[in-house]
Write a structure and sequence with these properties.
341 residues, 41% helix
Length: 341
């Protein structure tokens, strides 16, 4: 199992309170993640404040551009994988997104992982393009095809319903060939895009049984499309973490956190149609409870605990729980020895 930290590029008011982390603290969290032995960091992507966040907080949250942030972190670290969870495909033309990803991969010496998807909040796209029609699933299908061409070919063109470009020569290409593209989301469309174009799948808050079922579905869809999945197909599951002296104490802390509030806000979109409580779909409990759940996920085929978010209210509390998690949980389950502390 590999472990990755969710970093605060667009988490204030969503997964964490407002205020939570200024830009210096956001970078410090990434640097500390490498020191503690986390394999990767995962940056999310938001452009404008969601209505429910505006209703809850008087102060505007700080949303940082994930690509600029990851480029700066690349210069402060040496081995940390730099991932997006997710890069919202409708926010950028694929020609621009490919240039950003290739540049970051060059700067970091081949450490980029691109988790991509349609985005949880359609209103962000609508704020950018008022009245513009967009079928986000169809757009994502075209965007992944375009990104694949732009990241692997010296020159390419694309003509689709939603995306068009002509005779683009985009160099240099990424260091990694291929640069990993993970399809983000729980919906059937996300699984289909993972099966047809992806190097991995990036769902959130699934049970181990749901992960296993999702992988079976991806394999079946790939077979129908005549595609052989990559040998190292990454199943990167996004989860929340809350450690406690007892399971009951951990559940109470989680249920009262901004992270739980955010997950409940996604009940009609990213996390819709999920049965059972959120505490059963995240890493909540004692060290032993969490370890048992990680083992169940590993047996179900999860390869990366991606973008882990800690149910805390301050950066100091996050650092404390990160340290506890790295010392008490990660060594028994990590794919490689946890780094020096």
């Amino acid at each position: 199992m590999r472990f990755g930290l969710g970093v605060p590029t667009g988490t204030e008011g969503l997964m964490y309170p407002v205020p939570y982390a200024d830009i210096t603290q956001a970078v410090d969290l990434a640097v500390e993640a490498e020191r503690l032995g986390f394999e990767s960091i995962w940056a999310n992507d938001h452009l404008t404040t969601q209505p429910y966040v505006r209703a809850e907080f008087d102060q505007a949250p700080r949303y940082y551009d994930p690509m600029g942030y990851l480029a700066f972190v690349a210069a402060q670290t040496s081995r940390l994988r730099l991932a997006t969870a997710i890069m919202v495909l409708p926010f950028r033309h694929p020609v621009v997104a490919a240039k950003q990803l290739a540049t970051l991969d060059q700067l970091s010496g081949g450490r980029v992982v691109a988790g991509v998807g349609i985005g949880a909040y359609r209103e962000e796209f609508e704020a950018m393009h008022p009245g513009a029609p967009l079928h986000r699933g169809e757009h994502a299908e075209e965007a992944l095809q375009a990104l694949t061409a732009l990241l692997t070919q010296r020159r390419s063109s694309f003509e689709g319903r939603w995306i068009r470009y002509r005779d683009v020569e985009s160099g240099p290409l990424p260091v990694q060939q291929p640069l990993p593209l993970l399809s983000g989301g729980n919906a059937p469309g996300s699984r289909d895009r993972a099966a047809r174009y992806g190097h991995g799948w990036l769902p959130a808050c699934l049970t181990s049984a749901e992960v296993r079922s999702g992988q079976d579905d991806i394999a079946a869809r790939a077979a129908r499309a005549g595609r052989r999945l990559p040998d190292r197909f990454d199943v990167a599951l996004q989860l929340g973490v809350c450690l406690g002296a007892t399971r009951e104490a951990a559940v109470r802390r989680f249920e009262g956190s901004q992270l739980a509030t955010h997950m409940r806000s996604l009940s009609s979109s990213t996390l819709k149609d999920q049965a059972g409580g959120l505490a059963e779909r995240n890493l909540i409990g004692t060290v032993d409870d969490v370890g048992e759940r990680i083992e169940a996920y590993a047996e179900a085929g999860v390869t990366t605990m991606a973008g882990l978010l800690f149910a805390t209210d301050t950066v100091g509390e996050t650092l404390e729980m990160m340290s506890q998690f790295s010392e008490a949980v990660m060594p028994a389950h990590a794919a490689q020895p946890v780094g020096a502390r």
